[in-house]
Amino acid sequence: MEIDDLLNRYFEGETTVTEENALRDFFRSAEVPERLADYKPFFTYFDEEIRKAKCAEKVQSGGRSRRIFYWAAAAASILVMLGIRQANERFLNPVPCWTSSGYVIIDGRCYADVEKARALAIDALLKVATPAEDFFPDAGFFSDN
Question: Are residues 107 and 85 in the same domain?
Fold first, then answer.
């Protein structure tokens, strides 16, 4: 008769969480009396839905984690290739000007060729140079008159 009292209290909203869990456990068992068999789907429905949700979550997370793994593998391989290139430039093919007696560094690059260094230096100066007419606006010899 205790299960009948629990059912009445459940439908009145007077049960505790522990009592509701006891009801679910009772209806999960195979020993449900014939007179209470109609309530079994009601109490086992949530268990079935939770199980379905967990299965769907596993399927979704499996595909998602697989995609994340592929992207991470692609990013790692790019980093490895960049590291190999950097090591190749630095250690396997050293820049000849480091061993040269005369060299210049322009924009982080080392140049031992005098003509190349001169051309780059002039190009850099032209990029930052201020036009003469900005310095001497009143001189008049820069105008087209």
Answer: no
Total tally of structural domains belonging to the chain? 2
Given a contact cutoff of 8 angstroms between Cβ atoms, the answer to whether 112 and 96 are in contact is: yes
Distance CA 80, CA 65 (A): 22
Quick: pLDDT tens for 64-87: 667 777 888 888 888 888 888 777
Whether 19 contacts 6, CB under 8 Å: yes
| This model's pTM is above 0.85 | no
Structure tokens at 118: 């001169």
| Nearest-angstrom CA–CA distance, 20 and 6 | 8
DSSP assigned state of 29 = S
8 Å CB contact between 89 and 74:
no
CB count, 10 Å around CB of 21? 11
Question: Which amino acid type is present at position 105?
Answer: I
What is the sign, positive or negative, of the torsion defined by CA atoms of 35, 41, 46, 50?
positive
- The conformation of residue 21, written as its DSSP 8-state character, comes to H
Residue 143 domain flag: no
